[in-house]
Each structure stands twice: as structure tokens, then as C-alpha cells.
Design goal:
Elements (H helix, E strand, L loop, with lengths): L1 E2 L4 E2 L17 E2 L5 E2 L1 E5 L28 H14 L4 E5 L9 H9 L6 E6 L4 H10 L4 E5 L5 H8 L4 H12 L6 E5 L10 H11 L2 E5 L18 H9 L4 E3 L10 E5 L5 E5 L12 E4 L4 E3 L8 E2 L1 H5 L4 H13 L25
Parallel strand pairs: 5-6, 5-14, 6-7, 7-8, 8-9, 9-10, 10-13
Antiparallel strand pairs: 1-2, 3-4, 11-12, 12-13, 14-15, 15-16
Helix pairs in contact: 1-2, 1-9, 3-5
The protein binds iron/sulfur cluster.
Length: 353
């Protein structure tokens, strides 16, 4: 059986729970990691066309009847929080601000007990109009993507003339209770890699916490080329030309970003070396796609369908067990450096950060 229309093989964890799995209530995997951080993709659609993510014409968007309804999203997250030990929920996309019911979903999720921490990863377009309402609904913080401060370059990278909307979204978020306001930047060789210092300066001046993310092989075009990726080491080197960076001694835990205090702190910058400095050993993430598929890892080759069983009337306990079994089979890591590495067929735009 394949899941959705992307030909991704289903992990048949539904029928054969692994006898080796201990009786653990949470999302335990074979390597002893326990997932408590749920990433929920609310849509595969986006209003930008970032060249390192999707083709200019966009993609064949998910059919509406395959997308989870707001009620279904809330139910699945409720099961994760009440039965599976999830304590952080991050809404992603595509672009989650394209989801009309976002405020209601956030309100319902933040009224769960125990209350999870709720965050949003977005391109920021439209946030200036919704930041207040999202903060009122209980959203705790935001991560906004920003790869350049140059409007022309923004247009070249995203094929849209929307830089001012992103910057307005950022400053609107900063005037609400959403805190910290984080910025995610992807540096591409000979495209925007000369902006590491201007981006950090911009964020430091405004109190945003910047994190650079190594580009990962998750684009829809399957055109990722390691030589075009600016590595964590290169980013460190460039920033050190202007700033004194010291490793933050605060416990990193499962956080993807290595954190460095800038010029003695307290301001800091983060570097997410997904490819060259993987952090899979401490991974605590589990993922739900907009069409109701569970992914144990960004780079999973298989998925577990929960939309079908849910629409067929499966009770919460059964869905919780499906989820436990799916996570038990999680791979040790992304395997990008493995000779047999295969890029997942589902692109980042349909998985979410
Ligand atoms: S690549 Fe997979 S295992 Fe590694 S940190 Fe990301 S989600 Fe976790």
C-alpha cells in the first residue's frame, strides 16, 4: 500500500507491533530516544518559490480531500499530548499562514492539558496582520525564514517580490508576546553567502535570534549539490571575521542549533549543521504531514497513515499505538553520508522544518 500520491511506501507498523518494543507509553525508538517534539505540517502549499525548495511552477498540491481538517489536526495533536508525551508542537508547512484556521488550531492546542509549548515556522508573509491574534490564541514563539536583506536578491531566490512583507512580519511579531523571535537563514554559495554578517548584524540590532541552517537534500527538484552548501564551519569562519563567538555553555539537549554567544552575549547566534554536524543521536522529533502521514524522521523513506484509520473510526488508543509503532522503527539518523543514501520522495515543502 502506498500513502498519498507520492508513492511513499507505508511502514506496516499497524499490523505487526515489534515484540521487542518495551511497554513504554511514549514515542520511544530502538535507539532509546523518546520523541516529545511534534512537527505538524498544516499545508504543502506556499506563496514563495524558493529555488532550493521547489520549482518555479510549484508542485501538484495535495487534493483537498486528502488534507486533514482542522478538527482532525486538533484530535491528532491532542492524542500526542495526552497519550504520547508530546510537550512541544511546531506548526510548519509549506507556509502555515496559508491555513485559515490557524488561530483556532493554536487556541485548541494551547488549551490542552498538559499545555504544550507551541511555535510556528513561517516565511512571515501576512504575519504583520495575524501576529497579535496568534499571540492571543496562545502561540509562544515564531521562526521566520530570511535569507537576504536585498529585495532584488530576495526576488531571485524566492521568485517573489515580498521582502518588505517578511520584514514587517518580523517586526510585528517582536511587538507581541511572541518570544524569542527567531530567524532561519539558508546560505547558498555564490547566491547569498556574502550576507552572513549583514544578516547577523540586522538581527542583533533588533533582538532577533538568528540561526543559519545548512541546506539539506530535501528539495522537490532533487538538485541538491553538497558543493553549493555553505557548511557550519564556513559560517563560523565568516562570522568570526567580525564577531567573537563562544560556545554557549547552556545545556543544548536535543536542540538542533549549536548556540554561540556573540561578543560575550547575552545575544547569541545558532548554527544548524544538519549535514556536516548531525544531531540525530539526540533527536526528539516526530512529524505529522498535512495529509495525515506520520514520519519518524525528516529523511524517512516510509510513512504511517493515520488519516485512513481515523476516518474509518479508529479510537484514540489505536491511533496512539500506530504512532508508537511507527516511531519504534525510526532510523538512527538521516544517512546523508551513507553510500546508499536516497533522498526522500516527499519534499521539504510537504514535510515542514
Ligand atoms: S535527520 Fe531525522 S533523526 Fe536526524 S535530527 Fe532530523 S529528524 Fe532527527
Amino acid at each position: 500500500m502506498t500513502s498519498v500520491s507520492l508513492g511513499i511506501p507505508a511502514v506496516n507498523s499497524a499490523t505487526e507491533p515489534d515484540p521487542a518494543r518495551p511497554d513504554h507509553p511514549g514515542l520511544l525508538d530502538r535507539y532509546g530516544r523518546v520523541a516529545t517534539d511534534l512537527r505538524v505540517s498544516l499545508t504543502d502549499r506556499c506563496n514563495l518559490r524558493c529555488t532550493y525548495c521547489m520549482p518555479p511552477e510549484g508542485l501538484d498540491w495535495m487534493p483537498a480531500d486528502q488534507a486533514l481538517t482542522d478538527d482532525e489536526v486538533v484530535r491528532l495533536v491532542r492524542i500526542a499530548v495526552e497519550q504520547l508525551g508530546v510537550r512541544q508542537v511546531r506548526f510548519t508547512g509549506g507556509e502555515p499562514l496559508l491555513r485559515r484556521g490557524l488561530e483556532r488550531i493554536v487556541r485548541d492546542i494551547t488549551s490542552l492539558q498538559p499545555r504544550p509549548k507551541v511555535s510556528l515556522t513561517s516565511n512571515g508573509i501576512g504575519l504583520s496582520r495575524r501576529a497579535e491574534a496568534l499571540a492571543d490564541a496562545g502561540l509562544d514563539r515564531v521562526n521566520i525564514s530570511l535569507d537576504t536583506l536585498d529585495p532584488e536578491r530576495f526576488k531571485r531566490i524566492s521568485l517573489r517580490n515580498r521582502l518588505s512583507d517578511v520584514l514587517e512580519g518580523l517586526s510585528a511579531a517582536a511587538t507581541t508576546d511572541l518570544h524569542p523571535v527567531k530567524v532561519n537563514s539558508v546560505l547558498l554559495r555564490d547566491v547569498n553567502d556574502d550576507e552572513a554578517i549583514p544578516l547577523l548584524r540586522y538581527c542583533l540590532e533588533r533582538g532577533y535570534e538568528l540561526r543559519f541552517i545548512e541546506q539539506m537534500p530535501l528539495d522537490a527538484q532533487h538538485g541538491w549539490d553538497r558543493s553549493n552548501m555553505i557548511t557550519a564551519a564556513e559560517i563560523m569562519h565568516r562570522l568570526s571575521g567580525e564577531y567573537r563567538l563562544e560556545t554557549d555553555t547552556e545545556e543544548r539537549g536535543s536542540a538542533p542549533a549549536e548556540r554561540f554567544l556573540v561578543d560575550g552575549g547575552p545575544a547569541a547566534v545558532g548554527i544548524i549543521g544538519s549535514v556536516t554536524r548531525p544531531f540525530c543521536g539526540d533527536c526528539d522529533r516526530t512529524r505529522l504531514t498535512a495529509d495525515g502521514q506520520l514520519r519518524s524522521c525528516l529523511f524517512s523513506q516510509g510513512e504511517t497513515d493515520v488519516r485512513g484509520p481515523m476516518r474509518a473510526g479508529a479510537p484514540d488508543d489505536e491511533i496512539a499505538d500506530l504512532w508508537r509503532n511507527a516511531m519504534w522503527r525510526k532510523a538512527a539518523g538521516h544517512g546523508i553520508d551513507d553510500p546508499g543514501f536516497i533522498q526522500p520522495s516527499r519534499p521539504m515543502s510537504a514535510i515542514g522544518g
